[in-house]
Write a structure and sequence with these properties.
The protein has about 120 residues and is mostly helical. The chain contains four helices and no strands.
């Protein structure tokens, strides 16, 4: 799962549901990177995850997505993973916790949860 462009911020739930349906229909993995962003913002609303074009991610946004993908595919916690030099330690820690939260909250997200 990605995230909607900034001008369509209110579409997060729709994007999540669309990706969840696609994963279900393809018997694929649902990896809630966009939900990691939202979890991060619940704790630190000022995190800059959108890049200048309002869609592509900053380095922190990319790292958040990578943490989600790593945790979802490996089944291991993203907490404590190394961060790129472009993401400060405090932000990295917050994003790791957000990825863990998103993975825990959406680990069973499936057909019954999607409208």
């Amino acid at each position: 799962m990605v995230w909607p462009e900034l001008s369509r911020f209110s579409y997060f739930d729709r994007v999540r549901d669309s990706y969840a349906l696609a994963a279900r229909d393809a018997s694929g993995w649902f990896l809630p990177a966009g939900e990691t962003w939202r979890a991060a913002w619940r704790h630190t609303p000022s995190l800059a995850l959108y890049g200048g074009d309002g869609f592509h991610p900053t380095a922190a946004g990319t790292y958040a997505a990578a943490l989600t993908i790593f945790g979802g595919l490996s089944g291991r916690s993203p907490v404590g993973l190394p961060a790129p030099a472009t993401v400060d330690a405090m932000t990295a820690e917050r994003l790791q916790q957000a990825a863990l939260e998103a993975l825990e909250n959406y680990s069973d997200y499936g057909p019954a949860d999607v409208p």
